[in-house]
## 1
Amino acid sequence: MIKVAGLTRRFGALTAVDGLSFEVHPGEVLGFLGPNGAGKTTTMRMLAGFITPTSGHASICGHDVVTDALRARAALGYLPEGAPAWGEMKVCDFLRFIAGLRGLASRRDRLDAVVARLELQSVLAQPIDTLSKGFRRRVGLAQAILPDPPVLLLDE
């Protein structure tokens, strides 16, 4: 599912991730533990294709995150720590927008299933900015699992 070999990311003189290697197989759960600045989020951002590794390789479901980025991202659901969402959008509009981006616009059944699973029915008509932190996190999780990806990355 995830293969990482010698993954390194430098920002100038700072080495944020240094030669990281690991594999995650189907059904496994992996958690990164470490102090602030240890490279956990940087690693997830490289896997999600938001930043490019300085060296090394990573793949999601056999697709290299740099050379086959679109297929790697298609196999991935990602919830970053400060999940970006358009606060003025209603929850239902935001999730429909994400469904359209992910090619699921005609899959109302999938959207309904995710809304039910995360118990979002009561807030669908509310702007995201008006939600509690817990509901905002649920909306973020909903956008990550909407396409039913084989790999899910959750940052804090």
Note: The radius of gyration is 17 Å.
## 2
Amino acid sequence: MVTRDTPWPPGTPCWVDLAADDVGSAIAFYGALFGWDIQSAGPQAGGYHIAYQYGRAVAGLGSTAEGQPSTWTTYLATDDADATAAAITAAGGRLLAGPADLLGQGRMALATDTAGAVFGLWEAGSMEVGQMEASSIKSSQIKGIGLANEPGSLCWNEHTSDDLPGSLAFYRAVFGYESEEMTANYTLLKTAGQQSHVGGIGSAVGPAGWSTYFAVADTATALALAQGLGATIVRPQWDSDWGPMVTVADDQGAVFSLCTAPADS
């Protein structure tokens, strides 16, 4: 289990959120699948909700823009959203929104990289928001995900595109990633000075994008539950160095992956 109460190092995938056409249905789906306790972020948050696992924030859920598909978005940590936004455009990316203050909690932005993949930036702020602890609300600061590698929490993020060299060059330029080639078509990423890998970049045919992986106690069992809730299989279960994985689309079409939680989590 990985827990954190302070901002994540720059370049680390630090948050994921779902933009759904029907937020109520999404709350029901993911609450049943992962056992999340999903709470409104407040009347000023425009219907945005925070999902908690064991009292720690693990994801957000909100509404899609009109006409947009339901999708999961990966946010990368930064200690200066404005400077990172400038680096994105200098490296050939494009800003879609922000950087802008978000209810005093921090600064965020949305961007596309040189391959067209959408991702977010999150600069943690200091506004206190509600965090669930046992059956009561505890005042706390959300700096990003507070739990990882535990069933029902984020365990991996990866970027795929048909231009692996170009994508690597972009993210190295913006975030200063150190990289380790795993295969000819897949490279692991580390933030500067950190020992653990924070994500991966791989080659794939089709639209570029960032993928979200959630840990589960058992991939096959979680898949059966997801299908019972209306999910469909996008990529059948496969074995990896980290455990069995499967990629699915939820009942509104948002794609994510399930992975058996690491033994040393």
Note: The chain is about 15% helix and 45% strand.
## 3
Amino acid sequence: MTRSFVVILLAWTSTMSAQQSERVAAAVPVTGTVFVDLNGNGVRDPGERGLGDIVISDQVTVTRTDSTGHFRLDANGYGFVFLVQPDGFLVRGPFWRKAEAGAPIEFALVEAPLQAGFTFLHASDTHIHPANVDRTRRLRTLVDSLRPAFVIISGDLVRDALRVREPEARGYYELLESELKQFRVPVYTVPGNHEIFGIERHHSLVDRSHPLYGKRMYRSQRGPNYYSFSYGGVHFIGLDTVDYDDLWYNGHVDSLQLEWIRKDVATLAAGTPVVTFNHIPLVTAAEHIDGLTEDGPAPTAIRIGGRSYFRHSVRNTVDVVQAIGPRLEIALGGHMHRREMLRYETPSGTKRFHQTAAVTSPDKGEGPLGIRSGVTLYRVAEGRVDDGVFIPLFP
């Protein structure tokens, strides 16, 4: 039987991203202070000193606080200002704030001794909705038992915002927020394709003019869609690797984010290793296992600027790796619902690209290469990240 192959056609002619149209219309002048919160109450009390040389960003510009802990920034990113948690401190309260003129921001930091070794948990693809919320609660039980320093959830947090109306999408986000608030350790997230509100307009019937269209719904709930923080001598960068144009998402890191990565990495001390985490993988072999999908809601191939790409892996991975440079310790992804470990020996050193499995139910059945739901626990010692241990969600 002869089968036709469906290729999604996009006519992009530059590195400009559709989501860049979501930036603020005009820069917002923001001022604020970073201080050492001696009593941990999140409020600056008399005698609590400002902290200098702390990195602040709006997802475009990267600046630092002065010797008194003050900063000023004309925020022209996506409506937020965030603090890059430095080594030796933990953020008390949210690490990000909305950029609002005339509303000074205070970020509270509490001192935390540097850890010679620690663990963190990498989870992904919770796809949370009322029928499967028990799986996210099982994740929380594992976290309580394993006691990692923090948890990373690399996208597809909610069941779907691509193809549904606002009330349904908002309900999933509200359920997500109520569940994440119950975790006893920090939870860091990045968006997946299912967090992009309404772009499959032939299904969602959502107009482009909707105020939460695209990535705006994610940001309204979770803040910046890309950011960074440091812990235990390691710098973690949460990337947004899901781009979109018209009706279709695909794996791509746009030019604005690439430039921010370069600026962020430039703030690091020599020798600081970098761990990235994102949804659509930088590199994956899962397409080979699963085969090309010719139809359905997410066909495999996409054609951009006259060239074909795998839709479900980042098409400009080389640009991302070059922006980070030799500091890249390991790159962590999700999206494929598989625990995957890829290692490349290159002239510039070893490059590791790992995906963790999904928290949501497996959707490809059993078999020799079937999918098993679970998470990955990583151990860090003296700045080096091990290859992790896979932990099934249910033994």
Note: DSSP finds seven helices and 25 strands in the chain.
## 4
Amino acid sequence: MRHFLNINDFTAEEIAEVLKLAAHYKATRGTDQHPKPLEGQSWALIFSKSSTRTRVSFETGVYEMGGRPMFLSAREIQLGRGEPVKDTARVLGRMVHGIICRTYDQTDLVELAEYSKIPTINALTDEEHPCQILTDVFTYEERRGSIKGKKVAFVGDAACNVALSYVHAAKLLDFQLVCAAPEGYQTTVLNENVSVTSDPAEAAKDADLLYTDVWVSMGKEEEAEQRMQQFAGYQINHELKALAKPDALVLHCLPAYRGKEISEEMLEECADDIFGQAENRLHVQKAIMDFLTKSG
């Protein structure tokens, strides 16, 4: 049984296959050629964290692939009242055909996959956000070509789940990742494709892709004031973009806090790319579900 719990669950060749499939889903949306591999299936969406893009893209995706999405807030099922994860998983595995889970602890997700014995997808945990990174790669490649050998500058909280997934993707897909973050917010997971700096200008120099995420992730709200002070100067703006390559792409996984991790002007200038990136979650996640159902 195949799952997508982290980037390394797929090989580089499988990722290429998924992205090719995503392009097909995007091109055929709304036509008779659009695949419906989930016909007659029900997929459970278990969300312990609030969501806009992830929930809407997955619910829409399951529906457009012929299936029935079933949204289950953790507060509304027995899991939220203390039922063990493995018991919830055993029940769902006998009733639905796949699980999409957005939660805090990665180990809960692993346990869901182990005991449900049905395809399980990581829709975000505190540790990783693999669907987002595959979407980002898809977005870059449809606009600029292969990401292999390119330089990606991640500016901001480089210890967050998105940054960690980028670290694994850099090695798997062979691009260079430079993370610019203040001390205490730098990734400690490194490989030969990843470097860390406290200087945003160093990261942005000759970059092919400038990327950022919110400074205050869900669950870190009590640290907001401290983080605002420490991340001052780690904003993607005109000055930083001027250091990158002339055709550098600017992406943000959203939601964006304008005037903080990205300037108002930069977000509006790059809005077509950034909101196209958000749309691409739908197409890429369809491809992931399709790939998992076919690979058993």
Note: The first helix runs from residue 12 to 28.
